[in-house]
Design goal:
Blueprint: H1 10-25, H2 28-38, H3 51-58, H4 63-74, H5 80-85, E1 98-102, H6 110-119, E2 124-128, H7 135-138, H8 140-153
Parallel strand pairs: 1-2
Length: 155
């Protein structure tokens, strides 16, 4: 989850600042290659982001509309001002909050999870070993167990 000043990631910040026009114009095949390089960074076990799983993440970006949408509706809005703006309101939260974070998250370092759990009253943090940003892909069983217990505790 992007939080505070953590977004865009250094990779995307560089693309936005130095190469956005070229990346937007790139041929479809090159765009797919770029996404296929980025998506494995979202998991600890790189073997998980292959085959049908990788295809499922790529599918929303298929075709010219998907590529255009990716840049105009997603990348164009990569800006920390949105996540920084709510940071001061986190201590006001009065709802139960559980944070599941992959210990090996390459996109959002663990320091952000630790900061969130400090800023949100009564929040609990579960750091999941051998998991990346898409913790539910690396450790679906652990995620389900944590979510189930949390929901049962806070009906």
């Amino acid at each position: 989850m992007p939080s505070y000043d953590s977004w865009p990631s250094p990779t995307w910040k560089k693309i936005i600042e130095e190469q956005l026009e070229q990346v937007e114009q790139m041929p479809r095949a090159d765009f797919d290659i770029m996404l296929k390089k980025q998506l494995p960074m979202a998991v600890y076990n790189k073997e998980l982001m292959t085959g049908d799983t990788l295809d499922a993440y790529l599918e929303p970006h298929a075709g010219s509309l998907g590529k255009a949408s990716f840049f105009s509706h997603q990348v164009a809005h990569y800006n920390a001002k949105y996540t920084e703006s709510y940071g001061t309101d986190l201590p006001k939260l009065k709802v139960p909050v559980q944070i599941l974070w992959g210990e090996e998250d390459e996109w959002q370092p663990l320091m952000y999870a630790k900061r969130l759990v400090q800023d949100i009253p009564h929040a609990c943090l579960h750091v999941i070993p051998k998991a990346g940003h898409f913790v539910m892909e690396d450790e679906p069983g652990q995620c389900s167990d944590y979510i189930d217990r949390f929901c049962n505790k806070h009906p």
